[in-house]
Amino acid sequence: MAIAKAERLMNLALCLLGTRRPLSKRELRESIEAYLEAGSDDSFNRMFERDKDDLRELGLVIETVESLDGEVGYLARRDSNRLPPITLDAEEAAALGLAAKVWQQARLAGAASGALQKLRAAGLPEDVDPYGAHGALEPRIPVHEAAFEPLMLACRDRRPVVFDYRKANAAQPEPRHVEPWALECWRGHWYLAGWDRDRGAERVFRLSRITGRVRSRGGRFTAPVPDVVTVRETVASWAGETADRSARIRLRSGAGYPLRAKATSVRELDGDWDELEIPYGHGLDAWLVEFGPDVVVLEPAELRADVVDRLRAVAKG
Q1: d(Cα 156, Cα 152) in Å, to the nearest integer?
Q2: C-beta of residue 215 within 8 angstroms of C-beta of residue 162
Q3: How far apart are CA 137 and CA 146, in angstroms?
Q4: Closest CA to 312 of 163, 200, 171
Q5: Average pLDDT over residues 235-239
Q6: DSSP readout, 99-162?
Q7: Which residues lie closer than 8 Å to 237 by C-beta, 6 or more apart?
């Protein structure tokens, strides 16, 4: 049904753009197969009025002209529907070139290259090379997770999804029903922000922890989508980046280099252990569990208890 409507709208737009004189409803009905198949005049009139409104909403300027004999006709003049010339300075063209270089996957690389070709055809100056400017910069955003493409499309189409997700402290994945909002790459990892229907709250999911296939679900979103989806800020908060407290831990010598990089102080205890003071925020317990027996939490007590609970959950499987 969606394809049939898109084809009907395209045919109507081509008819209105291709004529030099206004076309009446009768002429348009005789020219477009979908209109000929309308069951009655009332059905055709409703379909035509909806299609005309949809084209106008998409930006097509449709004129209504009444002839001397009182017949109403429609046309879309090309000069009224022509986009203004595209003008880009060297810095803007360089930004587009860098953005096109970012995507290395076949699907997105082709789209980016095609967009630059269209800009060339639309008037991008020949002496401006969006690929050549700032050639020393080689941005890359790696996407290795199979879940990226279906989630990207689900975010675009506002389509609920379900997938199996394994938390950092869980031995087995569990299904999550999510209304996806946005994807963002942060510190080399891709994250999805969305509304978790089972928990009735906003959640952020790391794509590398999604197992199996992402399945689409019918229906509309049940929660409002924020005007600005701050994936990075949410991930940073869950990772303890916005911490306003400190935690004291023992760390085995030669281990836990990410923790050492975040430490505000490091004190050597003996040949085997060091004592570190690190920022303490939401999600730090899950991160510490990943280091297993190389980390011992000294304080605060609630962080130590959370880490112990997570380790027990992993042990139980």
Answers
A1: 6
A2: yes
A3: 27
A4: 171
A5: 61
A6: HHHH--SHHHHHHHHHHHHHHHHTT--TT--TTTTTTT---------TTHHHHHHHHHHT--EE
A7: 281, 282, 283
Cα–Cα distance for residue pair 22/16, rounded to 1 Å: 8
Cα four-point dihedral sign 202, 206, 212, 214: positive
Higher pLDDT, 8 or 98: 8
Question: By the 8 A CB rule, do 160 and 221 touch?
Answer: yes
135 burial level (CB within 10 Å; 0-12, 13-18, 19+): exposed
Count Cβ neighbours within 10 Å for each residue of 294-305 and write b for 16 or more, e otherwise.
bbebeeeeebbe
Burial class (CB in 10 A: 0-12, 13-18, 19+), 223: middle
**Residue 300 preceded by cis peptide, ω within 30:** yes
Q: What stretch of H or E contains 180?
A: strand 174-186
Instruction: State the pTM of this model.
Output: 0.46
Q: Sign of the C-alpha dihedral, residues 142, 186, 310, 161?
A: negative
What six digits make up the tokens of 286?
């899950």
Q: Is 231 within 8 Å of 173 (Cβ atoms)?
A: no
Q: How far apart are CA 9 and CA 206, in angstroms?
A: 40
